[in-house]
Design a protein that fits this description.
This protein has 153 residues and is α/β, with parallel strands linked by helices. The chain is built from four helices and six strands; from the N terminus they run ββββαβαβαα.
């Protein structure tokens, strides 16, 4: 029987983070230690079937066990039309993949992603291509940190 040392890092199942827009889906995945969220290629939306096929490839490749979807709330915290759309999208993911799907407050993640990319001095053209990925990383990273801090108490 293999017994891990007491100070061995705890491995977690991978989690997929999504920043869902009308035309693109920003994608990130957790590392097995839940230290960082790593950005993946942005999915350019076509139709529901093809979008789910692309997500299925990522889920298989990274052996994803849970999904976190950015939940757009108004600055006041109230839900709006986009919130309703994300609830339906999350329900589609639950039914299709049979995985837990969590909605996570994404307020200000896109503006934070733009600010981070601007500070990194990446060209405007490259920034536009990376913002969805960065937003997905920020959504997933904040979810992991909240989950981790909740489990330490």
């Amino acid at each position: 029987m293999d017994i891990a040392p007491a100070n061995a890092p705890q491995l977690h199942p991978r989690v997929l983070g999504l920043d869902v827009g009308a035309r693109k889906i920003g994608v990130a995945v957790s590392d097995p230690l839940w230290i960082t969220a790593q950005g993946l290629d942005t999915i350019f939306r076509q139709n529901k079937r093809k979008d789910l096929e692309q997500l299925a490839r990522v889920i298989r490749q990274y052996e994803v066990a849970e999904i976190v979807v950015g939940f757009p709330l108004r600055l006041s915290g109230a839900e709006g039309t986009q919130s309703d759309k994300m609830q339906l999208f999350a329900e589609d993911l639950r039914k299709h993949f049979k995985l837990p799907v969590h909605l996570w407050d994404e307020r200000l993640t896109s503006s934070q992603a733009h600010r981070i990319l601007k500070e990194s001095e990446i060209s405007i053209a490259k920034r536009g291509k990376a913002v969805d990925r960065m937003a997905a990383m920020l959504i997933l990273q904040s979810w992991m940190e909240a989950k981790d801090s909740a489990s330490t108490f």
